[in-house]
Amino acid sequence: MNLIETKIRIHCTCARTVLALSILLGGCRVGPPYQAPAPPTVTAPNYKESTVNFHDTEGWKVASPQDAMIRGNWWEVFQDPELNALEEQLNINNQNLKEYFQNYMAARAEIAEARSQYWPTITAAPSWSRSRSSSTLSNSSQANTGKATTLWTAPIDVSWTPDFWQKIRNEVREAQYAAQVSEADLEVEKLTEQASLAEYFFEIRGQDMLQKILDETVAADQKSLDYNQAQYDTGVGDYISVAEAKTTLEAAEATAVSVGLLRAQYEHAIAMLLGKIPTDFSIPVKPMLYTAPPIPTGVPSQLVERRPDIAAAERTLAEENAIIGIGYGAFFPQVTISASGGFESSTLSNLFSWPSRFWSLGPSVSQVIFDGWLYQAELHQYVATYNADLATYRQTTLTAFQQVEDYLVATRNYSQQIIRQQQAVKDSQDYLNLELVRYNTGVDPYVDVVIAQTTLLTNQETLNSLQVSEMTSAVELVQALGGGWDRSQLPTPAQVGAKTTKADYTLQH
Predict the structure, then answer these.
(1) In 3D, which of 263, 195, 276, 256 has the Cα closest to residue 476?
(2) C-alpha to C-alpha distances, 303 to 41, 75, 338, nearest whole angstrom
(3) Which of these, 132, 287, 289, 293, could form a disulfide with 208 (CB 3.0-4.6 Å)?
(4) Which string of b and e fits 138-158 if b means at least 16 CB within 10 Å?
């Protein structure tokens, strides 16, 4: 009989012993069964701020039907091809997303680590030694006095700790739930990065429009200065009008220069989101006016299933519940079944002969008798952590509803302000036109024209700011609604525990 046959005998004997014990004790389960917390009960068919205090015919409103939901690429609701292209680049090249993805893969690897405890540990430790005993020993005390001896050994040791109290199973569950949390965190980060890109993009377009407004203002102020200078040079006008026109122009020029600062910073931020060096990245100037599209909000009762941060908070609870089970398992004895066997001989030629075999088999039980109530204190800690995470879950849910209502009212209010501000711009333009007529006919001094110009510019800047705010609040509303994600996209414990390939863990450079 060879070494492999000996190993099979030992393994079969061990397996039969473990099978009998598993049948006897396999039904034991320690720790509380997990029950997902009930989400808040929402009876309202619509979000409060989606309808109240607004006229149906004015400003922005949510999409119809009310139970519609954004799916997939949520940014496409804004219907901007350039934004779509940037978002696609972000999904591929964003370094933060790559970091979170690798954290997720590491969490999946930890599931395999936990599962490895289901199996016995088999070790081989072949060795060779040669020794010589002292020649001064008497023959009665040492048979081989003064002689050199050789010893060849080829042992195999098998050790297995059956999961009688589901400690290992709870560790596997804990790792699976932790991987789900990691995947949900990845989705949260992805939505955050995507929303940031969209907001920066609309901010840049707002800066482009502001630059256009200021450039037009500078051009108009330059004409006014030229006109007043000509009037003064011909002796018709006075110098104070020239000074006022010059001051107005210089102030407008200074403001026009400052616009480039914010635009550049937004552009640099987008480059970072895309994983690019700002030096090699630019977004073409394109002054554009946007109007927030209707956003399908769905019904409030769907929100809990649409937010990845809520899913992460709930899966954290499941993870903590499994840890409590691990804590309970520490109170029970640990049974280890060990076996060893192999061959031992003084000559290599006889090492694998049948008489050279040796083996041993036996279980051992380990139980802590007293540990200063350590396990009890740890269990109390786990329970307290679970209760804290339960409060976090509920707070996360409440925050989600608050954010949706906040951005609903913000988007609606900005749209209402835009309607009125557009009228203010129109009226201030009429005011400036009338004041120019009065100045040209000598009725009013030029300072009245300056006041009218300043009023128009202020109203134009305010309108542009409101339009940008409306778009960014619409983005934040989509983000508060969970983007295009829903709970069905979260992988199950079995899916996160599925076998991965070596390519998934390739070292990157």
Answers:
(1) 195
(2) 11, 19, 53
(3) 287
(4) eeeeeeeeeeeeeebbbbbbb
**CB half-sphere exposure, 5, CA atoms < 13 A:** 6
- Full DSSP string of 125-138: --EEEEEE--TTS-
3-state secondary structure of 482: coil
Using alpha carbons, list the distances in angstroms from residue 276 to 90, 265, 271, 273: 10, 14, 5, 8
Q: Do residues 184 and 490 lie in contact, with contact meaning Cβ atoms separated by under 8 Å? A: yes
278-284 long-range contacts, CB within 8 A, separation 24+: 283/82, 283/201, 283/204
pLDDT along the chain (509 residues), means of 10: 36 40 52 88 84 66 75 94 97 96 96 95 91 67 69 91 91 96 98 98 97 95 92 90 93 92 96 96 93 90 94 97 92 90 84 84 89 92 96 96 96 94 97 94 92 95 97 97 95 93 77
Place of tokens 């209707």: 294
State the CATH class of domain 31-93+177-332+377-497.
mainly alpha
Task: Copy the structure tokens of residue 364.
Answer: 């051992």
Cβ atoms of residues 465 and 290 within 8 Å: no
Long-range contacts of 342-345 (CB under 8 A, 24+ apart): 342/3, 342/6, 342/153, 342/154, 342/155, 342/156, 343/3, 343/6, 343/152, 343/153, 343/154, 344/151, 344/152, 344/153, 344/154, 344/155, 345/151, 345/152
Residue tagged 């129109």 (tokens): 426
For residues 297 and 50, the answer to whether their CB atoms sit within 8 Å is: yes
Distance in angstroms (rounded) separating the CA atoms of residues 136 and 147:
11
CA distance 36 to 117: 27
Domain parsing of the chain, residue ranges: 31-93+177-332+377-497
Location of structure tokens 């019904």: 299
CA 69, 201, 462, 438: dihedral to nearest 10 degrees?
-130
pLDDT for res 274? 97
